[in-house]
Amino acid sequence: MSEHKGSCLCGKTTFTLTDDAPTVALCHCTHCQKSSGSAFSVNVLSPRARFSVSGPLKKFDDVGESGKPLRRWFCSECGSPIWTEAEAMPDVAIVKAGGFDDAGWIKPTLEIFCDSKQQWTPLPEGLARFARMPG
Ligand SMILES: [Zn+2]
Ligand SMILES: [Zn+2]
Fold first, then answer.
1. Which CATH architecture has domain 3-129?
2. N or C: which end of the chain has fewer CB within 10 A?
3. From ligand 2's centre to the CA of 76, what distance in Å?
4. For the chain, what percent of residues have pLDDT higher than 70?
5. Nearest listed ligand to the Cα of residue 96
6. Which residue has the higher pLDDT, 92 or 2?
7. Domain ranges of the chain
8. Is the pLDDT reported for residue 135 higher than 90?
9. Do 58 and 73 form a contact (C-beta atoms < 8 A)?
10. Residue 127 contacts by C-beta under 8 Å, 6 or more apart in sequence?
11. Separation of CA 27 and ligand 2 centre (Å)
12. Distance, CA 69 to ligand 1 centroid (Å)?
């Protein structure tokens, strides 16, 4: 099983994901836009048990479209978003792809919340697209 390491911008928060084939979703929801400061976030979804993280993390308590709580964890030193826990998917770690040291293995296969996609965003062909959250 491959180990993928990553960190925040300042390097005080580090993480490891041990997963050969996580699901990678581009999320166009407005909360991802605001919390990432970008047009969309690239989310790597893996079983929670395969993700370990340490560092000076803080969380923002958000609410997902399901109406259930989301915890958006970020480095308290530099503000980099690291990962999200969703009560709607308690066994899943949603890791921000941008923090990985080597992102060459990351292959998005779906896009979600396309309803709020920024119109200029160029995206690869062949991804499964959902207006909101897939059921
Ligand atoms: Zn940091
Ligand atoms: Zn999102």
1. Beta Complex (2.170)
2. C
3. 21
4. 100
5. 2
6. 92
7. 3-129
8. no
9. yes
10. 26, 108, 109, 110, 111
11. 4
12. 24
The structure tokens listed for 46 are: 């893996």
Structural Rg of the chain based on CA atoms: 14
Confidence of residue 95 (pLDDT cuts 50, 70, 90): very high
- Ligand 2 centre from 99 Cα, in Å? 16
Give the pLDDT confidence score for residue 114 in this predicted structure: 92
Residue 60: half-sphere exposure toward Cβ, Cα within 13 Å: 17
Ligand closest to CA 80: 1
Burial of 91 (0-12, 13-18, 19+ CB in 10 A): exposed
Query: What does the block give as tokens for 71?
Result: 């915890």
Q: Buried (b) or exposed (e) across 94-110, using 16+ Cβ within 10 A?
A: bbbbbbbeeeeeeebeb
Q: Encode pLDDT of 23-71 as tens digits.
A: 999 999 999 999 999 999 999 999 999 999 999 999 999 998 889 999 9
